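User: Fold both of these, please.

Assistant: Here is the first one.
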Amino acid sequence: MRKMVVQTIKNLFSKPVTVKYPQELSPPPPNYRGVIVYKEELCIFCTKCELVCPPGAIRFTYSEDGSKKFHYNPYLCIYCGECVRACPKEGCLTQVEETAPPATESTIPDWNGVEREAVESKKAWLAARQKRAKKS
């Protein structure tokens, strides 16, 4: 009992162990991989990153003309780095030692809508491609 009272009094006057978040940012854990950074100007749109992404945090949408658009959900990403390793173009996908911004209503993308659009646009693109192949 005496040890508990002594420890309680020590704790009253000692500095807290916790971080005062959001005033002080939490330090990243050791071996933190960081967020994925995408550079569109370097992308060759091979879609390898989409194929190897375990949680499906990367999706491509297709246009009728065959162009593709990259979509990335940092809140779904597990930061495994598979997309960075699979990318054949050096520097297109990289991991930086920054933390993802806090999720808010305005920053969270409608990922169900993006996935639906990706599937539908790919089907439409493949159908248009097959139609062009039959004409030739």
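And the second sequence with its predicted structure:
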Amino acid sequence: MQGLAIRWLVLTISIIMVSYLLDGIHVSGFFSAFFAAAVLSALNAFFRPILLILTLPINVLSLGLFTLVINAAMLKMAQGVIPGFEVVGFWTSVFGALLISIASWAMNSLISGQGNVRVIRMDNRRGKFWD
């Protein structure tokens, strides 16, 4: 449960960061981003797998780049539910979805499943290999 709350907070921080980077994404406050992260997570959990299966031929032909369009659609859907969260334009939603995904992945890679910060330690063995 703690891991879920931490990942939700990470997605919230990602949305806030991207709203500062892109002019077309506007968040009115922390709670708008917090609820946008909740709605975005729910949409990604329920509708994204269905859309990926339905658009599989297009996704295969575009070598997976159509997934960015699906992520942008999820971001635009979240905009329709949250009043303080606004995404203006198609390309803004595509770049916003890409940046949110990258920021969320980067921060989530440091968090374990239990919600603890994970430290990766590498040792140099015999001067040749890193373990």
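Residues 51 and 70 are 7 Å apart (CA to CA).
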